[in-house]
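This part of the workshop introduces the protein records we will be handling. An example says more than a description, so a record of this kind follows:
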Amino acid sequence: MNTLHFVALVRGTQQAGYTARFPDLPECSARGADVAGLVIEARRAVLDHLQALSDAGEAWPKATPIEQIAVDAGVIAVLIDVAADDPPIRVNVSLGERLVQRLDAAAEARGMTRSGFIAQSVRMSLGEQPRHDFEGAGRKLQDDFTALARKINEAIGPNSVFEKRMADLDDRFYDGVRRAADSVSAAMARRREASKTTGGTAAREADAPE
């Protein structure tokens, strides 16, 4: 299994979403509502495109280094990494019609292509651990990002423990401010009453005959 890096040219905004195109894969593109979603879709798009090339018996394009990619204003160059099998070579294999039908049915049931199913079967026959095909790798990648997004949302999103703690902290803070304000108001009221009482007593003493 190899890790390939293709440059994606990304443009967009948080309000409108983001799009990506790949200079080395002209027919490949991706779109996402946010950056995390764009990365998921970009990896899926690259994996699907490479798989399509493999199924067509075409060679994979060589990835251009990011420093050699020209970037227009308002565009960001991002490296998209994908885990893929060895570059494919076309092999002619003759199989019985019924066997091919059973092969295709088994591959479809596992969410795999014919080529991916054959390659995995060969590895297992050679004693190697089975590897995920392109579609399986793409699904796992999406599941990983979905789980990560869920954890982030649970940690700091709406109705999360973090938000509830912050709301409780805010309530305690404002309650403390209100209590302090009430204490100050009460103290000032007592002082005014004391001043009135002291003033009244002094006036009566002044008016009293000697």
